[in-house]
């Protein structure tokens, strides 16, 4: 899960956002210092100073500004590290987007623990589950490769939907086009194992030589429950790069009318008080290939 792609998701996001600002007079970018100094943003700010807004280290103001721009008819893209964008400014997401009934595109970097060496302030394994607590529908994209960023971002910019895109330095070896649906990747007669985002390569490594069926998801809200029902047998496993159990309620509800067993694997709800690397945290949380092989293998017996 921790392979770093040659061209990072963040780079693709910033390139695409700068192009969208040039192409579409509705698109605006709101920042709280993070990414404000990168060349793509500097150029876009010089060309369109009214639509590239850096509020400084004020994340609540950043989200509130995005909501205000949406009320004014613009299409805001609001960007920061996941814990600053989602957890720190959650009340503003709830009030200034959700309660006001307007849409925007929230794009995070950092994922659950990309910057493990920066400590717990930069961790956000709870971000996706927080959107499930909002009454309106959010579209949530979890790309597993930089090549899966531009398409959904451009599609989101052309709508007024509420969208959250979760970017990471972790990446699978190759991009996969899913169209927002569950994508079959490996056939078999064993349990259906759903890999979300950058977990796919580790899942495939764990599944080598087994009868597991593997499917890939990089859009998790709305979840492709129709595809799930078509593929699922008795045993279903979901491997997510954020809190373990985040999607369990969605899968269980989709399969409520049929006997099934569900195993959720993800970031454990513990504070490890560890720094190290993202790969270290993968191992501690059991998201490396060896741990997945052991845990899913025991479940599938």
TrEMBL record:
<protein>
    <submittedName>
        <fullName>Transketolase</fullName>
    </submittedName>
</protein>
<dbReference type="InterPro" id="IPR009014">
    <property type="entry name" value="Transketo_C/PFOR_II"/>
</dbReference>
<dbReference type="Pfam" id="PF02779">
    <property type="entry name" value="Transket_pyr"/>
</dbReference>
<dbReference type="InterPro" id="IPR051157">
    <property type="entry name" value="PDH/Transketolase"/>
</dbReference>
<dbReference type="GO" id="GO:0000287">
    <property type="term" value="F:magnesium ion binding"/>
</dbReference>
<dbReference type="InterPro" id="IPR005475">
    <property type="entry name" value="Transketolase-like_Pyr-bd"/>
</dbReference>
<dbReference type="InterPro" id="IPR029061">
    <property type="entry name" value="THDP-binding"/>
</dbReference>
<feature type="domain" description="Transketolase-like pyrimidine-binding">
    <location>
        <begin position="7"/>
        <end position="174"/>
    </location>
</feature>
